[in-house]
Amino acid sequence: MVTGAGAGVGKGIAMEAARQGAKVIVNDLGVNIDGSGANKGPAHQAVDEIRALGGTAAANTDSVADWKSAQSIIAQALDLYGRIDGVVNNAGNLRDAIFHKMSEDDFDAVIQVHLKGSFNMSRAASPHFKSEQSGSFVHMTSTSGLIGNFGQANYCAAKMGIVGLSKAIALDMERFNVRSNCIAPFAFTRMVNTIPADTPEGLERMKVNQRLETAKIAPFTCALLTDGAKDVTGQIFGVRNNEIYLFSQPRPIRTAHSGTGWTVQSCLEVAIPMMKPSFHTLDRSTDVFSWDPV
Ligand SMILES: NC(=O)c1ccc[n+]([C@@H]2O[C@H](COP(=O)([O-])OP(=O)(O)OC[C@H]3O[C@@H](n4cnc5c(N)ncnc54)[C@H](O)[C@@H]3O)[C@@H](O)[C@H]2O)c1
To answer: Is the pLDDT of residue 155 over 90?
Structure first.
């Protein structure tokens, strides 16, 4: 099951999964980048392309954002194929705005598709994974959440939320041999094409972004879906062209201890200065990924 697989990263994953012999459900609501509209075309088009290459696929054009429709998307896989082995939570929208101008609607719409949608789909698949005593979830996160980005509070919150969701699923479902991992992809899709490129630096960056091949996300995603990755769970990866990353996860890096306890004053005078050398700078994704992809 690949959500948002009518275009972009998801389509590449669906095609590679089919190439590897998987029977695929291509889910896609076919919406505009902001989540408006709905078009059955992209999901059916992707299915046609998979079938033309000799693969097995069926289209689903329901929304992952709704609990009941997520249940019916998973039910379609079971009706057609008799079981479900992997879910890739990839569907996504964007509603960028600087924080003090972000509307409640913009916040809710992005959380609803990315975070709630990933919950809906994972939760719908989980009883089947439990009874099969196997299953693999791959959730698309983003360096916008893992590191940070400007004007994307809704998206950053959703993508960090997905990291927590994935780890929680990995912990809760380990006893049923069910695995859950995240990937932060880098790929030139319409989502990346929304980044403003109206300055010389922006234009330069866009040229680099245009080199990010969508299909390059697929092999690693499909590898995580296979039994060959049966020991891999609770991890956060990244894929950018020919580079694959393993991301760190938060652990304490400094400890301030006072035998007599802390006052506001001693926090300001001792604890904060002590930890300050290890503070993280206000990085954005491009500050950390400061080299161009190979
Ligand atoms: N492209 C990148 O560099 C990049 C970077 C970081 C994270 N991501 C993540 O990767 C995933 C794929 O992004 P993309 O760049 O291919 O974007 P995309 O816009 O090309 O594809 C997203 C697809 O999701 C579908 N969709 C949206 N809402 C849906 C819903 N409610 N139900 C079902 N389908 C829905 C859209 O119709 C669209 O086809 C997203 O989760 C995105 O946040 C992408």
So the answer is: yes
